[in-house]
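Researcher: Final request for today, and then I'll write up notes for the group meeting. The sequence and the SMILES for NAP follow.
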Amino acid sequence: MQLYGILGYPLKHTLSPAMHNAAFRSLRMDAVYVPFAVTPAQLKTAIAGLRAVGVSGASVTIPHKEACTAWLDGLAGDAAILKTVNTIVVRGGRWVGYNTDGAGFLRALREEMRFEPRGKTACLLGAGGAARAVAYALAKAGLAKVHLVNRTPARAGSLAALLARHAKQTVVRTAAWRPSTIAEAAGESHLIINATPLERLPLRVELLERSTVVYDLIYHPTRLVADARRRGCVAANGLGMLLYQGALAFELWTGGHAPVSAMRKALRKTVAQ
Ligand SMILES: NC(=O)c1ccc[n+]([C@@H]2O[C@H](COP(=O)([O-])OP(=O)(O)OC[C@H]3O[C@@H](n4cnc5c(N)ncnc54)[C@H](OP(=O)(O)O)[C@@H]3O)[C@@H](O)[C@H]2O)c1
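Model: Predicted protein-NAP complex:
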């Protein structure tokens, strides 16, 4: 039996085991995916232990996405740029870190919201790990301009520097975390993304154009999504991103197609419980 799992702490609410075990079941694979709740102090030992028992692949979540890079044999794809990992692929005994968050977000945006970022303007609230992956993916997809709005200006500055180095064609503006500057940036944007864990944002949704698309990375239904829909905007929560980042991880691990509909069904069922 192949063993997969998710490294994070705490892991009480993780939806990933339900999603990946549903994928294994639907393809009749002899594999299982379990939560590995590991504190930051135990991360190095845990990775050494998982290598020793011959784990076939892993997901990585908060708070290990950056820290785990120190114990891997290499980084590939977006992870090499972002220096954050959400997927570990084991190939020939080498543990290589990938990041499928950005590509998962883009796939959700295109398939579920019918939104194509090329030539558009976005307002990104947050500048943490998820925001970095999302901003880089949007920029690579041809986004014309992004407003980065974050509580800690230095973090927005660091993301702006990353985009200036690796995605030069996207115009980057940073803005202070204040209702007036958020309203200004949002008012100029086709797409608004919440990449913070905040359920209540200092954003007045009633001022948005009805054509604005709103994406909340939080997995469950939020006030932002409900208010945006009431306003007439197309809006979604982060379940689609979770699904597609998981599907891409599955494909990296197995080299085959992910059974997306079985994975989506399992996620919806788990969230509804
Ligand atoms: N749907 C998906 O597949 C998916 C994937 C990854 C993450 N997520 C979700 O995305 C969200 C962010 O995750 P992350 O990994 O990027 O976390 P993170 O690296 O810890 O970043 C958190 C971000 O939220 C901001 N923030 C936190 N508390 C705040 C507050 N009280 N006021 C204003 N800003 C605040 C932080 O600002 P500072 O820089 O000022 O601290 C930072 O920009 C979480 O809700 C997570 O569950 C979803």
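Model: The CA atoms of residues 126 and 195 lie 5 Å apart. The pocket of NAP is lined by residues 62, 101, 126-131, 150-152, 155, 177, 195-198, 217-219, 238, 241-242, 245 (CB under 6 Å).
Researcher: Thanks, that's everything.
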